[in-house]
Fold this sequence. Notes:
The structure is a homodimer. The first copy, chain A, is 31% helix and 12% strand. Chain A has helices spanning 15-23, 28-36, 42-49, 53-65, 87-90, 93-106; strands at 69-73, 81-85, 115-118, 130-131, 137-138, 143-146.
Amino acid sequence: MGDLREPLNELTDCGLPGALEVMGERWSFMILRASFNGLHHFEEFLTELGIARNILSNRLANLVAHGILNREPCADDKRRIEYRLTEKGFDLLPAMLALRQWGQKYGVEITENPVLVDEVDRLPIGPVSILSHDGRILGPEDLRLTEPENLGVRADGTTAVPGKFGKNGNVAHLAGTSARAVNG
Amino acid sequence: MGDLREPLNELTDCGLPGALEVMGERWSFMILRASFNGLHHFEEFLTELGIARNILSNRLANLVAHGILNREPCADDKRRIEYRLTEKGFDLLPAMLALRQWGQKYGVEITENPVLVDEVDRLPIGPVSILSHDGRILGPEDLRLTEPENLGVRADGTTAVPGKFGKNGNVAHLAGTSARAVNG
DNA sequence: GTTTTTAGTTGCAACTTGCAATCTATCTAA
DNA sequence: TTAGATAGATTGCAAGTTGCAACTAAAAAC
Lengths: 184, 184
């Protein structure tokens, strides 16, 4: 039979490689975090992050090129350049917080001084969560990969798929098996 | 006094650098994703990811050293080594999905196949979200950095003291760097 | 007009990446 | 029990990346 080595280059069908192209760079997330924290200028990033000038220059240019930061000289002092998060940049907030919460859960004990809170009640936010379409919080065991034609139906109850994977046994949640090759 | 800006060491008080120490490496997230997808062996990762042997070896060792993967020779064939996600590894799922969803939102058109669904109703999951302590979905504009002594008080009268994250749905808290606000 | 500030570039050494070939331990088959 | 295949890891070398330090360039301040 033919070679079934179907490179899971469906991997390239997923958003992850694209995201990592920008955010996989060594300092990108730290710069992003500094931006979320209200830093806007070259020398600010430089001193707060302890990054080398050339690398910072390069990373900022990269983030700008990818539309995550906006680069604009200040009106009052045209030497100063403001780097500001775009909407695309702000959309990275869940990813950054999730990483951060993970690091916090498994890192050494940390006493945080400024705490990130919900503005409404000033209580610390909860964990970044995977939600179902209707807002239930999902864990890894609730997830599963399925072919588009086997998707559930919202209201009219036409569930036509035999359950292949057990809930916890061979939890093939996310097990990708469909065929598709990109290279040879 | 007056300048509330705190220096670099505050940055190291946040979970992000710790998380990036492992997951900031070039292939870590892709290997993690392959693991989520049910791959367990060296040669599987090798062919599916198209990564170099030495790099894969190195990254796997790194992920094992950081407790994200478990490394165990198979009982029946002691040449074969099984790499399996630990709980710590599974806890990276929200971060990975958030990144992936972001990449998907802003990347080139992608037809996701297979689709990640909620096992209960087989409908595609919703976006990874930042939740308040009581489950409301928060956006960047709902967030604020605050000093611990200015935290709100919960309905039951207990103070929300920042601590580590519990298993699920516990109170979260994220340190900020400077005394600047997160919101725009 | 000289100096200072802000952002960015260039030179060079140290480190990291990744392909190809090699190595070790184990399993299988004659 | 030796030959051969297989799984994983290691080494050598070329190419690329990182980062310190010193330098340029332009706008602002003096």
